[in-house]
Amino acid sequence: MGIHDFFQVLLYLGALCITTPLLGWYIARVYDENNPLRLPGLHALERVIYKLSRIDPDQPMPWKSYAGAVLIFSGLGVAAVFIVQALQHRLPFNPQHF
Question: Which parts of 41-86 are beta strand (E)?
Fold first, then answer.
């Protein structure tokens, strides 16, 4: 590992140490119910999504339901990436025709 590599790792770790508290502060404010940083229409949209999904936001989610939701979400993500890669030659903005 050369001197440039060492300084690059040091620069990355320094940027990570500086930005972590700022991001943590922001995320804590976003999840606070009385937060001015929240966009006004998103709470209504969230309620509509809960109603359409038949989810009660006041009930805790058991671990089996959470595990199933994670597996379904991950499976849909893998399927979406597979479809994008399978159809990549037909997608726009592909000048190399991969």
Answer: none
